[in-house]
Design a protein that fits this description.
heterodimer, B: 355 residues, mainly alpha, two-stranded antiparallel sheet, 4 strands, globular
C-alpha cells in the first residue's frame, strides 16, 4: 500500500564552483508527508528544483513512479503528476484566483488553439467541465469569496492558499511544498496545516514539505530528512530526528543549559 | 449605470463564463454592432469612410500585436514586417497566380504566421529589450528583402505591385462603402476570436508566461511552444491585416510597411491598454484618427500661421501635436484608455454614492 513514488539517487548539483547538492538520495512514498529541514543554503530548495525539472543535476538519477525524470523539461514532469508551490509566492498576479487555479488544469485540458478561438462548442464544454473541478478545489480551500479577485491583490496568507489550490488543480500524485507557512501568523499556520493534512488523507497525495517551523514539522510529518551543506545528514521519524546529535548540531541547536547547570 | 451587476444571479457556469454577463452590456454591444453595420456606413461621407476603413485594418493588426505584447508579454517592434509578408503574399497570389481574393487573404495570414514562427525563435532564449532588438532586426531584414529581391517586389518603384480589387462572387468590392463592409466583417471575427482566446486555456497560458514564466513552466505550460504560438497567431493577424491593406489600396508598396508603422501599432496597444481587447479598439481608433483629425483642424489656421510653405508645416506640426498628446495621455493614465474607461465605469457602478 505504501508504494514508492519518488526516488532520488545520489544526486549532485553544482552552480559553477558552488556545490548545492552532494550525493543526496531519498525516497518518498504515496500518502506520506516527508519533511526536509536544514539551515539556509543547505540545498532544500535546490533539491525540489531538481525534482521538478527546473535544474538538471550533473550526476545521479531521479525516478518518479519508476520513470526517469532527471533530464525531462518541467512541463513534462508536471504532466506526469508532480506539482509544487514556491517559497516566494509565484502566482500569476494579474490573473484572477479562478484563472490561476484554472491554469493548474492546463495539462488536463486538450483544446487546440483553433477550438479556443472558436470557443462555442468544444472549448466551451471543456472549460465548463474543468470549471467544475476547480470549483471543488475552491470549496475545499474555502476561498469562494475571492474567486474573481486578481491574485496580486490578496493578502499573503491567502496567496499561499491559492497557490496550494493551483498545485492541487494539476491532480498531482506528488506535491512539493516549499515553506508553505513562511511569514504566516499562528491562525494561518493552523489552517494551512489542516489543509495539508486533508490533502494527504483525503486525496492520498504524497507530500514533500520544506519548513522551518519545527512545531509544524513535528506535528504533521511522517518522516524527516535533515540536509546540511548539500548532504543528507540524517533521516527518520520526527522524534528520532530531534534527538539525533547530528541534526542538533547542524540545525536544531543545543538546548539551553538548565539553570544552575 | 452602464454596468450594474447588482441583482443579476448566475445559475450555471456557462452563464458565469459568458463574454458579457450583464444584460445591459449585451444590449450595448449589440447596439454598437448594429450602429457600425447599419447606420455608420450610410451617414459617413467618403472621406470619413476612409478613416473608418483605416481604423478597421489597423485594428486587425493591433489585435494581433496586443496578443503578443499585452497577453503573452513578448515584445515585438517588427509587426509591420509581418504585415508586409501577408500583404505581398496576397498581392503575388492574386495578381500573378490569379487566385481569388479570399485565398490571398488566408494565404497571406498563414504565410505570415510561419514567418512569425521564424522571427519568434529568438524569444525562446531572450526576452525584454533583447527580444525587441531581435524583432527590430527582423523588420529591417524584411524591408530590405522585399525591396531588393526582384521576384517579390517586381520591377516597380518601391517594390509596388498592382493588386486587383477584392471580388466576392460576382461582386467587385471597389467602392469605399463595399470595402467598409468587408473590413468590418473581418474586424468583428478577429475581435471575437481574440476575446475567445483570452478566456480559454490558450489565453491563460499566454498570460501565465507573461506574469511568471518559471511558474507557468512548472505548472505544465510548454513555454517554448506557447511563445512560438503567440508569435504565429500574432503574425497571422498581421498577415491578414496586410492582405486586407493591399486589397483596400489596390497595390502593395513597401512604404506602407516601414518601421514607423510598427511603432504606430505599439502606440495603439500601449495607449489602448496592454492585454485588453476593448483597449485595442480604443487605441486603434485613437492613433489612426487623431493625426487625420489634427490635420483637418490645423488646415483651418492656414491664414493665421505666417509660414511660407504652409502645407508641409501643417504636416509636421500634426506629428508634433500627436506626439505631445500621446505623452500627455500616458502621464495621465499609464495603463491606457481601457483603464480610463474602467475608472469611469467603476465610478458609475455605485453612483450617486461615493462608494
Amino acid at each position: 500500500m505504501n508504494e514508492m513514488l519518488l526516488e532520488v539517487q545520489n544526486v549532485y548539483l553544482s552552480f559553477g564552483g558552488v556545490q548545492a547538492l552532494r550525493g543526496v538520495s531519498l525516497e518518498a512514498r504515496k500518502s506520506e508527508i516527508l519533511a526536509i529541514i536544514g539551515p539556509n543554503g543547505a540545498g532544500k530548495t535546490s533539491l525540489i528544483n531538481a525534482v521538478c525539472g527546473h535544474y538538471h543535476p550533473q550526476r545521479g538519477r531521479i525516478l518518479f513512479k519508476g520513470i526517469d525524470i532527471t533530464r525531462l523539461p518541467p512541463h513534462r514532469i508536471a504532466a506526469l503528476g508532480v506539482a509544487r508551490t514556491f517559497q516566494n509566492v509565484a502566482l500569476f498576479r494579474d490573473m484572477t484566483v479562478l484563472d490561476n487555479i484554472m491554469l493548474g488544469r492546463h495539462v488536463k485540458m486538450k483544446s487546440n488553439p483553433l477550438a479556443c478561438a472558436l470557443y462555442w462548442g468544444l472549448a466551451q464544454r471543456e472549460e465548463i467541465r474543468h470549471r467544475e473541478v476547480v470549483e471543488r478545489i475552491i470549496d475545499f480551500l474555502e476561498i469562494e469569496h475571492i474567486r474573481k479577485v486578481p491574485a496580486g491583490a490578496l493578502p499573503y496568507g491567502l496567496q499561499k492558499r491559492v497557490e496550494l489550490g493551483r498545485a492541487l488543480a494539476l491532480e498531482p500524485e506528488l506535491l512539493l511544498l516549499d515553506e508553505p507557512m513562511a511569514g504566516m501568523n499562528l491562525d494561518e499556520k493552523e489552517d494551512m496545516a489542516r489543509f495539508i493534512l486533508d490533502v494527504q488523507e483525503e486525496l492520498g497525495i504524497g507530500i514533500i514539505l520544506i519548513e522551518h517551523d519545527m512545531g509544524v514539522v513535528m506535528d504533521i510529518s511522517d518522516r524527516v530528512i535533515v540536509l546540511d551543506l548539500g548532504e543528507k545528514i540524517c533521516e527518520g521519524r520526527p522524534e528520532e530526528v530531534v534527538s539525533d546529535p547530528r541534526a542538533i548540531k547542524a540545525y536544531l541547536g543545543e538546548a539551553i543549559a538548565p539553570k544552575g547547570g | 449605470m452602464i454596468n450594474r451587476e447588482c441583482g443579476i444571479f448566475k445559475t450555471t457556469y456557462q452563464a458565469d463564463m459568458a463574454l458579457y454577463t450583464v444584460p445591459l452590456a449585451r444590449i450595448t454591444v449589440a447596439g454598437f454592432l448594429a450602429f457600425f453595420a447599419l447606420i455608420l456606413p450610410f451617414i459617413l461621407d467618403v472621406k470619413h469612410l476612409v478613416w473608418a476603413n483605416l481604423v478597421g485594418i489597423n485594428l486587425v493588426a493591433a489585435l494581433g500585436l496586443n496578443l503578443l505584447v499585452g497577453f503573452a508579454g513578448q515584445i515585438s517592434v517588427g509587426h509591420a514586417a509581418f504585415m508586409a509578408v501577408g500583404g505581398y503574399t496576397a498581392a503575388i497570389m492574386t495578381s500573378r497566380a490569379d487566385m481569388p481574393f479570399w485565398v490571398g487573404l488566408v494565404g497571406g495570414g498563414v504565410f505570415a504566421a510561419f514567418y512569425g514562427l521564424l522571427v519568434g525563435l529568438p524569444s525562446v532564449r531572450v526576452k525584454g529589450f533583447y527580444l525587441a532588438i531581435a524583432t527590430l532586426a527582423a523588420q529591417f531584414i524584411t524591408e530590405w528583402t522585399v525591396n531588393h529581391v526582384r521576384w517579390i517586389g517586381g520591377k516597380g518603384f518601391q517594390a509596388s505591385i498592382i493588386v486587383p480589387p477584392a471580388k466576392l462572387g460576382g461582386l467587385v468590392l471597389d467602392t469605399e462603402r463595399e470595402k467598409y463592409f468587408l473590413i468590418l466583417a473581418i474586424a468583428i471575427v478577429a475581435t471575437v476570436a481574440l476575446l475567445n482566446i483570452a478566456r480559454t486555456r490558450l489565453g491563460r497560458a499566454f498570460v501565465a508566461i507573461r506574469d511568471r514564466d518559471i511558474a507557468a513552466e512548472i505548472m505544465g505550460v510548454d513555454i517554448v511552444r506557447y511563445k512560438l504560438l503567440a508569435f504565429m497567431i500574432s503574425s497571422f493577424y498581421a498577415g491578414v491585416a496586410g492582405a486586407l491593406w493591399v486589397y483596400y489600396l489596390g497595390n502593395a508598396n513597401i512604404e506602407s510597411f516601414r518601421i514607423v508603422e510598427s511603432i504606430n501599432f505599439l502606440a495603439m496597444v500601449i495607449i489602448g491598454g496592454l492585454g485588453s481587447v476593448l483597449g485595442t479598439i480604443f487605441g486603434a481608433a485613437f492613433v489612426t484618427i487623431l493625426p487625420l483629425a489634427l490635420e483637418d483642424i490645423l488646415q483651418n489656421f492656414k491664414g493665421v500661421i505666417p509660414v511660407s510653405d504652409i502645407h508641409s508645416f501643417v504636416a509636421h506640426l500634426r506629428f508634433a501635436v500627436f506626439g505631445g498628446l500621446i505623452m500627455l495621455f500616458l502621464m495621465v493614465e499609464p495603463e491606457g484608455l481601457n483603464r480610463l474607461w474602467r475608472n469611469i465605469k467603476d465610478y458609475f457602478r455605485v453612483w450617486p454614492f461615493p462608494y
